Amino acid sequence: MWAVARRPKWIALLLLAILLAGVFAALGKWQLERSIENGKPLPASTETRKTLDDVTTPEKPVGSSLAGQKVTVSGRFVAGDTTVLTGRSGGGKYQTVGHLVDDATGASLPVVIGWSDQRSAAVAGGDRLVDDASLTIRGRYYPAESPDQDTFEQHEYSAVAPARFVNTWKAFDDRMYGGYVVADRTTADAADLGTIADRAPTREVQFDWLNLFYAVEWVVFAGFAVFLWYRFVKDAWEREQDEARESAEAAAADPVDDDVEPVDEPVVPVDDARAEPGRR
Questions:
Q1: What is the pLDDT of residues 166-184, one digit of tens each?
Q2: pLDDT lower than 70: segments of the chain
Q3: According to the UniProt entry, which residue ranges have a biased composition of type Acidic residues (predicted)?
């Protein structure tokens, strides 16, 4: 079979198969690197504190890379717009959300101030921060939540949802940030409330099994390209073997001996009908 494989036609086809296998192997390597890269934790850029105006603008959606970003914002809380939320994680039965107007942009920003186990204390905590003085709030910035988790029938609210605040806040000029801030201990202490338990967001990403599957798939394609060349060569060799066997069988069924000379047959004399009578 290898005598057939050494022919120029099959050598050229082998080089093509090796080239295709190399391309497939490179694609498999790229997919494997993607799966490993996607499994690495993202850089903790959120831990560098920035001003709110440096990371976003009013009405701009909050992407996943910005969730949990440490920010600083200065503004004034609006009297009468304090909201109490229930059923939230981070501490306490009730959490206080204030309406902060950003000094730099004039846009509205929900701020989770702190928590308390009593509703009246939660409301009073928000009222303590309402005055004409500008306050500097430090905390983490998160994407806005949906009001779907609220229990409207029981007049209970659980989501920090700007989409709802635009209808409940009294002082609102139609400019709202796309997220909200969870204030740190400084703001909670000023309101005489408990501090919301907040920590750096988890940046671990699960291993990307889909890219790993694609990597294995490309390796299989690479092996198949070489295997296909092998099958083509073997089929050509088997076809030649069958043709040679059929020729040999045909020759054995109809032998021809060229060394045998033809033999002249003897001539038998025939009696002449005109011979004389009585003569033998």
A1: 888 887 777 899 999 999 9
A2: 36-44, 149-155, 200-208, 254-280
A3: 255-264
Separation CA 68–CA 70 (nearest Å): 6
With a threshold of 0.70, does the pTM exceed it? Answer: no
DSSP secondary structure string, the chain? -HHHHTSHHHHHHHHHHHHHHHHHHHHHHHHHHHHHHHTSPPP-GGGS-EEHHHH--TTPPPPGGGTTEEEEEEEEEPTT--EEEES-SSSSSEEEEEEEEETTT--EEEEEEEEESSHHHHHHHHHHT-SSS-EEEEEEEEEPPPGGGSBGGGTB--S--HHHHHHH-SS--S-B-SEEEEE-HHHHHHTT-BPP---PPP------HHHHHHHHHHHHHHHHHHHHHHHHHHHHHHHHHHHHHHHHHHHHHS---TTPPPPPPPPPP---TTSPTT--
121 near 95, Cβ under 8 Å? Answer: no
Whole-number percent of the chain with pLDDT over 90: 33
